[in-house]
Amino acid sequence: MRWLDPIGAAARLALPPRCPGCGIPVVADHRFCATCWNSLRFLGPPWCAACNLPFAHDRGDGARCAACLADPPRHAGLRAAVAYGPVARSLALRLKYGGRIAFAETMAGPMARLLPEGADLIVPVPLHRWRLWSRGFNQAGLIAAGVASRSGVPVDHDALLRRRQTLSLRGLGGRARARTVAGAFAISGEASREGRVRDKAVVLVDDVCASGATTDACTRVLRSAGARSVTILCWARVLPETGDY
Predict the structure, then answer these.
(1) What's 122's DSSP letter?
(2) Which one, 3, 6, 109, 230, has the greatest CB density within 10 A?
(3) For residues 203 and 49, what is the distance between their CA atoms, to the nearest angstrom?
Protein backbone atom coordinates (compact mmCIF):
# COMPACT_ATOMS: atom_id res chain seq x y z
CA MET A 1 0.00 0.00 0.00
CA ARG A 2 1.34 3.40 -0.97
CA TRP A 3 1.24 6.07 1.71
CA LEU A 4 -0.30 9.33 0.63
CA ASP A 5 1.40 12.66 1.27
CA PRO A 6 -1.51 14.91 2.22
CA ILE A 7 0.69 17.96 2.81
CA GLY A 8 2.43 17.57 -0.54
CA ALA A 9 -0.87 16.95 -2.32
CA ALA A 10 -2.38 20.05 -0.74
CA ALA A 11 0.63 22.11 -1.74
CA ARG A 12 0.40 20.92 -5.33
CA LEU A 13 -3.29 21.84 -5.42
CA ALA A 14 -2.66 25.26 -3.89
CA LEU A 15 0.52 25.98 -5.87
CA PRO A 16 0.43 23.89 -9.07
CA PRO A 17 3.39 23.97 -11.47
CA ARG A 18 3.08 26.86 -13.89
CA CYS A 19 4.28 27.49 -17.42
CA PRO A 20 7.50 29.52 -17.28
CA GLY A 21 6.33 31.52 -20.26
CA CYS A 22 2.80 32.61 -19.38
CA GLY A 23 2.09 31.29 -15.89
CA ILE A 24 -0.87 29.02 -16.56
CA PRO A 25 -0.95 25.68 -14.66
CA VAL A 26 0.94 22.80 -16.32
CA VAL A 27 1.58 19.16 -15.47
CA ALA A 28 5.14 19.52 -14.10
CA ASP A 29 7.79 22.03 -13.14
CA HIS A 30 9.85 23.52 -16.00
CA ARG A 31 7.23 22.47 -18.57
CA PHE A 32 5.76 24.94 -21.04
CA CYS A 33 2.14 25.09 -22.07
CA ALA A 34 1.40 24.11 -25.67
CA THR A 35 1.15 27.74 -26.83
CA CYS A 36 4.48 28.85 -25.34
CA TRP A 37 6.20 25.63 -26.40
CA ASN A 38 5.08 26.05 -30.00
CA SER A 39 6.26 29.68 -30.00
CA LEU A 40 9.82 28.68 -29.07
CA ARG A 41 12.21 28.08 -31.95
CA PHE A 42 14.61 25.39 -30.86
CA LEU A 43 17.97 25.55 -32.60
CA GLY A 44 20.14 22.77 -33.93
CA PRO A 45 21.64 21.37 -37.13
CA PRO A 46 21.84 22.09 -39.98
CA TRP A 47 24.05 24.97 -38.97
CA CYS A 48 27.37 26.67 -39.72
CA ALA A 49 30.26 24.39 -38.83
CA ALA A 50 32.11 27.30 -37.21
CA CYS A 51 29.55 29.47 -35.38
CA ASN A 52 26.45 27.21 -35.38
CA LEU A 53 24.29 29.83 -37.09
CA PRO A 54 21.22 27.88 -38.25
CA PHE A 55 20.91 27.20 -41.99
CA ALA A 56 17.57 27.08 -43.80
CA HIS A 57 18.70 23.83 -45.46
CA ASP A 58 21.55 21.36 -45.15
CA ARG A 59 24.63 22.67 -46.99
CA GLY A 60 26.76 19.62 -46.30
CA ASP A 61 29.42 18.72 -43.76
CA GLY A 62 31.81 21.53 -42.89
CA ALA A 63 29.74 24.27 -44.53
CA ARG A 64 30.34 27.74 -43.08
CA CYS A 65 28.33 30.92 -43.19
CA ALA A 66 29.65 33.95 -45.08
CA ALA A 67 30.72 35.75 -41.90
CA CYS A 68 32.85 32.82 -40.72
CA LEU A 69 34.42 32.39 -44.16
CA ALA A 70 35.46 36.05 -44.06
CA ASP A 71 36.52 36.12 -40.41
CA PRO A 72 36.77 32.72 -38.65
CA PRO A 73 35.79 32.94 -34.96
CA ARG A 74 38.17 32.17 -32.11
CA HIS A 75 35.53 30.04 -30.40
CA ALA A 76 34.58 26.48 -31.36
CA GLY A 77 30.90 27.25 -31.89
CA LEU A 78 28.02 29.21 -30.36
CA ARG A 79 25.27 26.79 -29.41
CA ALA A 80 21.92 28.13 -28.25
CA ALA A 81 18.87 26.23 -27.07
CA VAL A 82 16.39 28.63 -28.66
CA ALA A 83 16.19 31.72 -30.84
CA TYR A 84 15.65 34.98 -29.00
CA GLY A 85 11.95 35.83 -29.01
CA PRO A 86 9.10 36.87 -26.68
CA VAL A 87 9.01 33.73 -24.49
CA ALA A 88 12.80 33.26 -24.44
CA ARG A 89 13.24 36.95 -23.59
CA SER A 90 10.64 36.77 -20.81
CA LEU A 91 12.46 33.90 -19.10
CA ALA A 92 15.84 35.61 -19.34
CA LEU A 93 14.58 38.93 -17.98
CA ARG A 94 12.53 37.39 -15.17
CA LEU A 95 15.53 35.32 -14.08
CA LYS A 96 17.98 38.21 -14.27
CA TYR A 97 15.87 41.05 -12.89
CA GLY A 98 12.91 39.32 -11.28
CA GLY A 99 14.81 36.83 -9.16
CA ARG A 100 13.01 33.81 -10.64
CA ILE A 101 16.03 31.59 -10.08
CA ALA A 102 14.08 28.39 -10.83
CA PHE A 103 14.10 29.48 -14.47
CA ALA A 104 17.82 28.70 -14.55
CA GLU A 105 16.87 25.02 -14.33
CA THR A 106 14.25 25.50 -17.05
CA MET A 107 16.93 26.88 -19.36
CA ALA A 108 19.59 24.34 -18.40
CA GLY A 109 17.55 21.35 -19.60
CA PRO A 110 17.51 22.07 -23.34
CA MET A 111 20.98 23.63 -23.15
CA ALA A 112 22.53 20.46 -21.70
CA ARG A 113 21.44 18.51 -24.78
CA LEU A 114 23.71 20.75 -26.89
CA LEU A 115 26.82 20.25 -24.77
CA PRO A 116 29.67 19.30 -27.15
CA GLU A 117 31.27 15.91 -26.86
CA GLY A 118 34.55 15.88 -25.00
CA ALA A 119 33.78 18.95 -22.88
CA ASP A 120 36.14 19.15 -19.89
CA LEU A 121 34.98 22.20 -17.97
CA ILE A 122 32.00 24.56 -17.77
CA VAL A 123 32.73 28.24 -17.02
CA PRO A 124 29.97 30.85 -16.61
CA VAL A 125 30.32 34.42 -17.84
CA PRO A 126 31.03 36.32 -14.60
CA LEU A 127 29.38 39.38 -13.09
CA HIS A 128 31.34 42.23 -11.55
CA ARG A 129 31.46 41.86 -7.76
CA TRP A 130 29.31 44.96 -7.18
CA ARG A 131 26.60 43.75 -9.53
CA LEU A 132 26.76 40.30 -7.96
CA TRP A 133 26.36 41.90 -4.54
CA SER A 134 23.36 43.97 -5.61
CA ARG A 135 21.62 41.18 -7.54
CA GLY A 136 22.51 38.38 -5.16
CA PHE A 137 23.32 35.81 -7.84
CA ASN A 138 24.92 35.37 -11.23
CA GLN A 139 22.28 34.10 -13.65
CA ALA A 140 24.95 32.51 -15.89
CA GLY A 141 26.37 30.73 -12.85
CA LEU A 142 22.97 29.28 -11.93
CA ILE A 143 22.44 28.06 -15.49
CA ALA A 144 25.96 26.61 -15.63
CA ALA A 145 25.31 24.68 -12.40
CA GLY A 146 22.15 23.23 -13.93
CA VAL A 147 23.99 22.14 -17.07
CA ALA A 148 26.77 20.62 -14.95
CA SER A 149 24.34 18.63 -12.80
CA ARG A 150 22.73 17.14 -15.91
CA SER A 151 25.94 16.36 -17.77
CA GLY A 152 28.46 15.48 -15.08
CA VAL A 153 30.93 17.99 -16.56
CA PRO A 154 32.43 20.04 -13.70
CA VAL A 155 31.77 23.76 -13.41
CA ASP A 156 34.34 26.34 -12.28
CA HIS A 157 32.58 29.48 -11.02
CA ASP A 158 35.81 31.30 -10.20
CA ALA A 159 38.01 30.72 -13.24
CA LEU A 160 36.93 33.95 -14.94
CA LEU A 161 36.39 37.31 -13.28
CA ARG A 162 35.02 40.62 -14.46
CA ARG A 163 37.60 43.08 -13.24
CA ARG A 164 35.67 46.22 -14.07
CA GLN A 165 32.02 47.08 -14.29
CA THR A 166 30.67 47.78 -17.77
CA LEU A 167 27.68 49.69 -19.03
CA SER A 168 24.70 47.81 -20.40
CA LEU A 169 25.26 46.64 -23.98
CA ARG A 170 21.58 46.89 -24.88
CA GLY A 171 21.05 49.19 -27.82
CA LEU A 172 24.75 49.48 -28.73
CA GLY A 173 26.16 48.51 -32.10
CA GLY A 174 28.66 45.70 -32.52
CA ARG A 175 31.78 47.88 -32.42
CA ALA A 176 30.54 49.86 -29.42
CA ARG A 177 29.82 46.62 -27.56
CA ALA A 178 33.29 45.30 -28.30
CA ARG A 179 34.88 48.53 -27.04
CA THR A 180 32.75 48.45 -23.89
CA VAL A 181 33.89 44.97 -22.82
CA ALA A 182 37.50 45.23 -24.02
CA GLY A 183 39.78 44.33 -21.12
CA ALA A 184 36.85 43.74 -18.76
CA PHE A 185 37.59 40.04 -18.14
CA ALA A 186 40.56 38.14 -16.77
CA ILE A 187 41.53 34.73 -15.46
CA SER A 188 41.50 34.74 -11.68
CA GLY A 189 44.89 34.60 -10.00
CA GLU A 190 44.20 31.22 -8.41
CA ALA A 191 42.91 29.69 -11.64
CA SER A 192 45.97 31.00 -13.47
CA ARG A 193 48.43 29.63 -10.89
CA GLU A 194 46.72 26.24 -10.88
CA GLY A 195 46.30 26.10 -14.65
CA ARG A 196 42.64 25.24 -14.24
CA VAL A 197 41.70 25.96 -17.87
CA ARG A 198 44.98 24.94 -19.49
CA ASP A 199 44.53 22.27 -22.19
CA LYS A 200 40.80 22.05 -21.37
CA ALA A 201 37.87 22.00 -23.77
CA VAL A 202 35.92 24.78 -22.06
CA VAL A 203 32.19 25.46 -22.39
CA LEU A 204 31.41 29.11 -21.70
CA VAL A 205 27.83 29.56 -20.45
CA ASP A 206 25.65 32.67 -20.69
CA ASP A 207 21.93 33.42 -20.76
CA VAL A 208 21.57 35.42 -24.00
CA CYS A 209 24.03 35.93 -26.84
CA ALA A 210 23.48 38.92 -29.10
CA SER A 211 26.47 40.48 -30.87
CA GLY A 212 28.91 38.08 -29.22
CA ALA A 213 31.02 40.91 -27.78
CA THR A 214 30.96 39.57 -24.23
CA THR A 215 31.57 35.95 -25.14
CA ASP A 216 34.29 36.94 -27.63
CA ALA A 217 36.10 38.87 -24.88
CA CYS A 218 35.81 35.90 -22.50
CA THR A 219 36.94 33.48 -25.20
CA ARG A 220 40.03 35.58 -25.88
CA VAL A 221 40.99 35.47 -22.19
CA LEU A 222 40.35 31.73 -21.85
CA ARG A 223 42.36 30.90 -24.96
CA SER A 224 45.22 33.13 -23.78
CA ALA A 225 45.21 31.15 -20.52
CA GLY A 226 45.76 27.94 -22.48
CA ALA A 227 42.25 26.57 -23.05
CA ARG A 228 42.37 24.07 -25.91
CA SER A 229 38.99 25.23 -27.18
CA VAL A 230 36.05 27.36 -26.07
CA THR A 231 32.50 26.50 -27.07
CA ILE A 232 29.79 29.00 -26.14
CA LEU A 233 26.52 27.63 -24.79
CA CYS A 234 23.55 29.89 -24.10
CA TRP A 235 19.81 29.81 -23.58
CA ALA A 236 18.82 32.20 -26.38
CA ARG A 237 20.60 33.59 -29.42
CA VAL A 238 19.65 36.76 -31.24
CA LEU A 239 19.51 35.76 -34.90
CA PRO A 240 20.10 38.26 -37.71
CA GLU A 241 16.48 38.12 -38.84
CA THR A 242 15.06 38.75 -35.36
CA GLY A 243 16.63 42.18 -34.91
CA ASP A 244 18.94 43.65 -32.29
CA TYR A 245 18.94 42.73 -28.60
Answers:
(1) E
(2) 230
(3) 17
